[in-house]
Design goal:
The chain is α+β, with helices and mostly antiparallel strands. The protein contains one helix and ten strands. It has a six-stranded antiparallel beta sheet, with no helix packed on it. A four-stranded antiparallel beta sheet has the order 1-2-3-4, with no helix packed on it.
Length: 163
């Protein structure tokens, strides 16, 4: 009986430490890393948007890192697909079933060439051209961050959507 209790206790302790180490792995910051040094398993679903008109050599990258979908602001990008240094890692909230990240969004207030608005919207697998996002952010290049904005007046164009 004591041996069974001891084995069960060892198993529970082992499971606890595995769950703690996995939780810590999901919250790792990659700021300062080169995008080329990231684990290749982080690449599925990757999308890069150059922002040359706002900040030369900068880009926004969307990718999955340790099961978490993130937006990265990277600099030092000389060519499309080239390496860059991560200067901001922004973890997106949970994306619901059928939703996707949209990069072609506008508002009446932010309809300028020097502003990028990103939204999370239900686009029915690309069957709907214009969608209203559930959540939206505006790129603040001065702070090197994303500012959450009200999605009330935001509209996203899903042209070019690929599942």
């Amino acid at each position: 009986m004591k041996k069974n209790v001891y084995c069960l206790l060892c198993l529970l302790i082992h499971a606890y430490f595995l769950s703690v180490s996995n939780a810590k792995a999901e919250n790792v910051s990659y700021v300062g890393y080169s995008t080329c040094r990231l684990n290749p398993s982080f690449n599925p679903g990757m999308f890069r948007l150059p922002i040359e008109n706002i900040k030369p050599g900068y880009a926004i990258e969307y990718r999955r890192i340790n099961k978490q979908k993130c937006l990265l602001i990277i600099d030092g990008v000389k060519v499309i697909g080239g390496c860059g240094r991560i200067i901001k890692q922004f973890r997106l909230p949970k994306i619901r079933s059928g939703e996707s990240v949209q990069f072609n969004c506008i508002t009446k207030e932010h309809h300028q060439d020097n502003n990028i608005i990103i939204g999370i919207a239900l686009n029915k697998n690309g069957r709907v051209r214009f969608v209203k996002p559930r959540l939206a952010w505006s790129l603040n290049i001065d702070k090197i961050d994303f500012d959450k904005i009200s999605s009330t007046n935001v509209i996203c164009d899903t042209i070019g959507y690929e599942e």
